[in-house]
Design goal:
Order of helices and strands of chain A: EEHEEEEEHHHHHHH
Number of domains of chain B: 1
Number of helices of chain B: 11
Oligomer: heterodimer
Strand order of the largest sheet of chain A: 2-1-5-3-4
Structural class of chain A: alpha+beta
Number of strands of chain A: 7
Number of domains of chain A: 2
Structural class of chain B: mainly alpha
CATH topology of the largest domain in chain A: Fumarate Reductase Iron-sulfur Protein, Chain B, domain 2
Bound molecules: protoporphyrin IX containing FE, iron/sulfur cluster, FE2/S2 (inorganic) cluster
Helix content of chain B: over 70%
Number of helices of chain A: 8
Chain lengths: 250, 256
């Protein structure tokens, strides 16, 4: 198939950047989206140009590295897939495809389509973990967990930290990511003792990083490759209010 | 992050805290609108019922009631506006470079123009208060002095521009609320996967009822001439009373 690509090119943080047009000819329909970009890059290299820089690692939808905004939607308009798991059969011959980076102030652009998502790491470091305890593991059955709770925690734990939620949010809010990471620990007995500290720490770091504020648009949920539910955001709002009240009074 | 020198400041400065302020003040305004609508519906019952209701509002708790209510209303509105303007500014700043090609998956337009629907409602509020509470129009003031709030309301809707602005403002209020009411539940942490659909339905139904309910009055008055005869008769009586130097209408003249 033949496609026209409109790709964001930018040499560095300081560069202005612009959309460049590429003709992607004879792309096999069974190629993945990233393979299509590989083919285009190979041709750019042969012609002596600078290939399009983009992030990826696993190419199987589990690492969260790929980060393309495709026709204005992070990971494309297909539900529940990462860009690396998107295939060219979802497009038509002759289509024009816009490819842009994930845009947010808290995700500074490094080059072309690559952005720095270490703000997420700093949020995790501010509370998205369980303090290590020494000693031997106790019998698992000593910690009963209701099935519904375990399910909710597992659903939240599916987040791969890709940042599509931020990129899709009209306010560049990181609430879906933060709420998923907080929920998957808060809901389980191992994480519950540090719940308040975790919630306050992660939300404060999120605010400090310059992400926007959630206005309940639910765009994040619609683009999330792991279909994380915005139920987690409601839970985080509630937990934050409770934690703050406790901090102020006890 | 020392344990709060000022917990209220912490709350206000955090993203979630400020949104909770928006949600609580918004909820107060939502309750107010429901009450206001129910009261307004008395206009269809009779002029006495409506005038009694107005009288009750002005005399409850020895006249303190309405002032307590007005002050809470003003504080809620001011907090709502300051918080939403600050949040909107922060949200714009969080994405300094926009997408060249923008697209939206699910968020309806009403949810993306909250600041504009809100600000239009604010302009309407100021107008509405000048119109019916401060009564800059002298003929409305005279009717109110004689406790003829029903006739005052009908008289106020004899102007096409007033009626059209009223309808436009209510349409934008409806848009604001169709996203806002559902948002209250999410922001306060009361929305779950199971209740999401129901909350959305409630939000839309509530805003539609508010819209239809409020606009029905100016439409009935202006386009269907509701109450015009009685209003003009009342006006004439009030004018006669003014001429006669009275400050109240004679008793029997209050009858239908
Ligand atoms: C009768 C008047 C009003 C009512 C009943 C009302 C109601 C609401 C409600 C219920 C919300 C949702 C709260 C939440 O996010 O949880 C909201 C949000 C909002 N309101 Fe109002 N509001 C009114 C007036 C205004 C005014 C005058 C402004 C002007 C600045 C405004 C601007 C906003 C904005 C920007 C939001 C945030 C949007 C969002 O989070 O999606 N509102 N309003
Ligand atoms: S919540 Fe979804 S979109 Fe956001 S970082 Fe996690 S996996 Fe990506
Ligand atoms: S490259 Fe790992 S999820 Fe796409």
């Amino acid at each position: 198939m033949n496609l026209t690509l409109k790709v964001w090119r930018q040499k560095s943080v300081h560069d202005d950047g612009l959309i460049e047009t590429y003709q992607a000819k004879d792309i096999p329909i069974e190629a993945s989206f990233l393979e299509m970009l590989d083919i285009v890059n190979q041709r750019i290299i042969i012609d002596g140009g600078e290939p399009i820089h983009f992030d990826y690692d696993c190419r199987e939808g589990i690492c969260g590295q790929c980060s393309l905004t495709i026709n204005g939607i992070p990971h494309s308009k297909e539900r529940g897939v990462t860009a690396c798991q998107l295939h060219m059969r979802k497009f038509k011959d002759g289509d024009t495809i816009w490819i842009e980076p994930f845009r947010a102030k808290a995700f500074p652009l490094q080059r072309d389509l690559m952005v720095d998502r270490s703000a997420f790491d700093r949020i995790i470091a501010a509370g998205g973990f369980i303090d290590v305890r020494t000693g031997s593991a106790q019998d698992a059955n000593n910690l009963p967990v209701a099935k519904t709770r375990a399910d909710s925690a597992m659903d939240a734990a599916a987040c791969i930290g890709c940042g599509a939620c931020v990129a899709a949010c009209k306010n560049a809010s990181a609430m879906l990511f933060v709420s998923a990471k907080a929920a998957h620990l808060n809901l389980l007995p191992q994480g519950a003792p540090e719940k308040d500290k975790r919630v306050l720490g992660m939300v404060r770091q999120m605010d400090a990083e310059g992400f926007g504020n959630c206005t309940n648009l639910y765009e994040c949920e619609a683009v999330c490759p792991k279909e994380i539910s915005t139920e987690n955001i409601a839970r985080l709002n509630r937990d934050y209010a409770v934690a703050l009240a406790k901090e102020a009074t006890v | 992050m020392s344990s709060s020198t000022c917990s209220i400041c912490h709350f206000w400065q955090s993203s979630i805290g400020k949104k909770i302020v928006v949600a609580l003040t918004g909820a107060y305004l939502v309750f107010f609108l429901a009450g206001h609508l129910v009261g307004n519906m008395l206009i269809y019952q009779s002029s006495e019922a409506f005038n009694h209701y107005a009288e009750f509002l002005h005399t409850m708790l020895h006249g303190w009631g309405i002032w307590i209510f007005r002050i809470i209303m003003l504080v809620a509105l001011v907090l709502h506006i300051i918080a939403t303007i600050q949040l909107t500014a922060a949200n714009r700043a969080a994405r300094p470079r926009r997408y060249q090609r923008e697209a939206t998956m699910v968020a309806p337009r009403s949810s993306r123009m909250m600041i504009w629907s809100g600000l239009t409602v604010l302009v309407f509020f100021v107008f509405h208060i000048l119109h019916y509470t401060v009564r800059v129009q002298s003929d409305l003031q005279v009717l109110a002095d004689f406790k003829q709030n029903w006739a005052m309301t009908i008289a106020g809707f004899q102007n096409l521009l007033v009626v059209l602005f009223y309808i436009l403002a209510m349409a934008l209020l409806c848009s604001h609320l169709s996203h806002g009411v559902g948002s209250i539940f999410q922001t306060l942490g009361l929305r779950t996967k199971k209740t999401a659909k129901g909350i959305q339905l409630f939000s839309k139904a509530y805003s539609l009822i508010i819209f239809v309910g409020f606009i029905s009055i100016p439409i009935s008055v202006y386009f269907f001439g509701m109450g015009k005869k009685e209003m003009e008769a009342t006006k004439a009586k009030v004018e006669a009373a003014v001429q006669a130097g009275l400050t109240e209408l004679p008793e029997q003249d209050n009858a239908h």
